[in-house]
Amino acid sequence: MLKKVIVAVVAVLLSPAVLMAAEGAAALPNGEGVYTFLKAGLAIATGLGIGIAALGGALGQGRAAAAALEGIARNPEAAGKVMTPMIIALALIESLVIYSLVISFMLLGKI
Questions:
Q1: CATH of the domain at 56
Q2: How many CB atoms lie within 10 A of CB 107?
Q3: CB-CB contact of 38 with 19 (8 Å)
Q4: Other Cβ atoms closer than 10 A to 26
Q5: Considering the chain, what percentage of its residues have pLDDT values greater than 90?
Q6: Confidence grade of residue 21 (pLDDT, cut at 50, 70, 90)
Q7: If you compute the radius of gyration of the chain from its CA atoms, what whole number of angstroms results?
Q8: Strand, coil or helix: 1
Q9: Residue 57 CB: number of other CB atoms within 10 A?
Q10: Domain range spanning residue 94?
Q11: Could you give the CA distance from residue 66 to residue 64 in angstroms, rounded to a whole number?
Q12: CA 65, 68, 70, 76 torsion: positive or negative?
């Protein structure tokens, strides 16, 4: 089961590169079908890419916050020392989701 999920995720992540490579085929006679396939594939890839990035970011932020709060609960005196690295880690995790959003906007510009 895990292998199937990994293969599916890799296929989704690699699909924008394959679809953008097919752009040259759209210049061929009767290439409208290929161009339509390119547009549809890019639209699906951007939607799935944002969904996967948001899911991964949410899982990462949840784990980071849970670990930080557990550390604070065990040692309340270290709350100040734990809070700052946690906020930095949450900002870095969120920046990865924002990068995914920027990339999806770039791909939407290709449609």
A1: 1.20.20.10
A2: 18
A3: yes
A4: 15
A5: 17
A6: low
A7: 20
A8: coil
A9: 18
A10: 2-23+31-108
A11: 5
A12: negative
DSSP state of 70: H
| Residue 26: DSSP 8-state | G
Residue 3: band (very low, low, confident or very high) from pLDDT cuts 50, 70, 90: confident
What pLDDT does 106 receive?
A: 84
DSSP state, residue 30: T
Express each pLDDT in 24-75 by its tens digit. 555 555 555 566 777 788 888 888 888 888 899 999 999 999 999 999 999 9
Using left for φ > 0, alpha for ψ between -120 and 50, and beta otherwise, residue 30 falls in left
Structure tokens at 36: 């339509």
Q: Please give, one letter per residue, the 3-state secondary structure of 70-100.
A: HHHHHCHHHHHHHHHHHHHHHHHHHHHHHHH
Based on the structure, what is the number of domains in the chain?
1
List all residues 6 or more positions away from 108 whose beta carbon is below 8 Å from its beta carbon: 42, 43, 46
pTM above 0.85, yes or no: no
Contact assessment for residue 100 and residue 53, using Cβ atoms and an 8 Å cutoff = yes
Contact 15, 41 (CB under 8 A): yes
